[in-house]
From TrEMBL:
Superkingdom of source: Bacteria
PANTHER family listed in its UniProt record: ABC TRANSPORTER ABCH.1, IMPORT ATP-BINDING PROTEIN
Record protein name field: ABC transporter, ATP-binding protein
Annotated GO CC locations: membrane protein complex; plasma membrane
Organism: Bifidobacterium boum
ABC transporter domain mapped to chain residues: 18-249
Amino acid sequence: MNKEQSERGNVNDGGMLLELDHISKIYGDVHAVDDLSLTVPQGEWLAIVGSSGSGKTTLMNIIGCLDTPTEGTVRLEGRRLEDLNAGQLADVRKDVIGLVFQKFYLVPHLTAAENVMVAQYYHSVVDERQALEALDKVGLKDRAHHLPSQLSGGEQQRVCIARALINCPKLILADEPTGNLDEKNERIVLDLFRTLHEQGTTIIVVTHDALVASCAQREIMLNHGVLVGEKWNSDEARAQYEAMGGRPASTDAQVEGAQHGDLPVDFNDPTKTAKTGGDVR
Ligand code: ADP
Ligand code: MG
């Protein structure tokens, strides 16, 4: 780190909520994430695409403070995560981040409202009224006292989103949130994300689905842990990002057989291939 960077300390200049600086996650010979740099401003809706095993979940776990990179630095709101102790990291997880997974991880013997209240519990406030409000936002107030087994897959995913929303997170991290849903429920979830985005929430969503990805303002594509493409879907968001000094996402690592500087790739083919290839992760 140079002098200018170390003097910067905790100051979050540039309005970037998230800054990944040359991060890698290495398991033996596998570079699950390979030398990736990315900055995400407050309020952006970003999609991460790529086929199975390309490192999407690993990257999300690092951003969500569930895992640490082998190399590189992660800053959230200007604070370097590696400088935080376990208690401070737990606070970041509960105060800043809302997680939505493909697998629902609902407690089977608790009702929808109680499952939402589990998230509140970690905030030391348990308020059924707030839990019901959160369920209302996702269109499930009349299902609040049902058990997960009495809910459809789409309804269970909406309970998970209500659970993620209960603490008003600045950042929603969603890993294949529509992976198990039919088209109708996919649309409901996307509409919810759209509303959250309009309210200023930053959203990072991992998806195989080209349609889901196209709703985001920007898409990045991973292949074997390497960033192989970046595409903006909103010229306005791009202009804003550049005006605030945002840099293109980048990697110094290379995909086998690819020439350095190959960005951007065609986003449609790999996602389609991945979709028909099927990801069981
Ligand atoms: P994706 O979510 O894109 O399907 P992952 O992030 O789950 O990909 O995995 C990326 C690569 O890292 C894969 O090759 C996977 O086998 C490997 N990997 C992920 N987690 C571990 C782990 N805990 N130990 C060893 N290898 C892992
Ligand atoms: Mg995954």
